[in-house]
Specification:
The structure holds 2 protein chains of 2 kinds.
Chain A (H helix, E strand, L loop, with lengths): L1 H18 L4 H23 L1 H10 L5 H46 L5
Chain B lengths: L1 E10 L6 H9 L2 E8 L6 H6 L4 E4 L5 H14 L6 E4 L8 H12 L5 E5 L10 H18 L11 E4 H6 L9 H12 L3 E5 L6 H5 L4 H16 L2
Parallel strand pairs in B: 1-2, 1-4, 2-3, 5-7
Antiparallel strand pairs in B: 4-6, 5-6
The chains are: A mainly alpha, B alpha/beta.
């Protein structure tokens, strides 16, 4: 079914976006993805029938189900991305804490000078 | 006395034993840095009673974080040629350190790793042995290094290796990170038998099987982070 290809392609693209480094382009990409996902899901509120037509094109019965499938995958990768970004932030905090600790120790003693 | 060797001891809540461990080490080594990783007991006060250098982490960074801090501190000494990672709980033997350093000084290796499975006196608790064996399999698979003990805290390495090492994993997973560095940087390594003293005190502080899950997860995430 067409929906399977769409979901597999989505997983591949999101996997590459999530795990191939974090830079300004990728961050922008995720912002566009997030906004697009929300906008697309909002179509349900304004034109449920349009969404149903798109869903049937991909071989899915209802528009809501189509959105659910995509939404679950996108949210899973967004969570993974947030986790990785929190690890990056952890690294930065560690670096600062380390520099500060060493600086304080050095101010107290310079035993090899 | 070894003037160009630095002993790095990450310490967390070892107030009851650290002074004895450090005083013993000071008999053979004059450069010792204890990295107090946010201890809540009297660890810092006990270290201050000795002649060891003391670095107090402003926040707890885990054993890996403390080791990296100690290494960076020691690297500030331009005379430092050899670096030793040493546990604070009295499990490691100074005789082993001296032997490993002699081997390193020959210049054939960049890092000498201790192995409790090559040594004697192994009253290793059964569960811990099983966990370590699993860790060995995982590390061999991910790094390609053929080792008998992948999570031994006793290591002696040269300045080249110290400068290349950048431990990011703050918890116990750092041991595998050290091995990854050996593999990626193609550093020359060897294992020697060492004796690990499993006292009731040190057994009580050992790793639980649940923490193995944390370690494996950290390693997996770190391998895919860029």
């Amino acid at each position: 079914m067409l929906i399977s290809y769409l979901l597999i392609a989505t997983i591949i693209v999101l996997f590459l976006l999530t795990f191939s480094g974090r830079n300004a382009k990728k961050r922008a990409g995720f912002k566009v993805l997030t906004v697009t996902t929300i906008a697309f899901s909002s179509l349900i509120l304004f034109d449920p029938e349009l969404l149903n037509k798109v869903a049937r094109f991909f071989g899915v019965g209802r528009g809501v189900d189509f959105v659910n499938y995509l939404f679950m995958i996108v949210v899973a990768f967004l969570l993974a991305r947030f986790y990785l970004e929190s690890k990056d932030q952890d690294d930065r905090i560690t670096k600062i804490a380390r520099e500060l600790s060493i600086l304080k120790a050095k101010n107290g003693e310079d035993k090899w000078k | 006395m070894n003037k160009n060797t630095w002993i790095i001891i990450p310490v967390y809540n070892e107030g009851s034993v650290i002074r004895v461990v450090v005083e013993e080490a000071l008999k053979s080594f004059e450069n010792i840095v204890c990295v107090n990783d946010g201890s809540t007991d009297n660890t810092a006060e006990e270290i201050k009673k000795t002649k060891a250098h003391l670095v107090n982490h402003v926040i707890n960074l885990g054993q890996g974080g403390a080791l990296q801090t100690g290494i960076e501190y020691a690297l500030l000494d331009p005379r430092a040629k050899y670096f030793v990672t040493f546990d604070a709980d009295g499990q490691h033997k100074l005789d082993d350190v001296l032997r490993m350093q002699k081997l390193l000084e020959k210049g054939d290796h960049d890092i000498i790793l201790g192995s409790r499975f090559l040594g004697e006196g192994n009253n290793i608790p059964a569960l811990k042995r099983a966990i370590l064996k699993a860790a060995i399999l995982f590390t061999t698979f991910t790094t390609g290094l053929k080792l008998t003990d992948t999570h031994n805290g006793l290591r002696v390495f040269n300045r080249n290796f110290a400068e290349a090492l950048n431990i990011r994993l703050r918890g116990m997973s750092h041991a595998s990170e050290v091995l990854s560095r050996i593999s990626i940087g193609k550093f020359k390594y060897t294992e020697v038998p060492v004796t690990i003293e499993y006292t009731e005190y040190s057994k009580a502080k050992g790793q639980s099987i649940l923490n193995l899950i944390n370690i494996l997860f950290d390693l997996f995430i770190d391998s895919i982070r860029k």
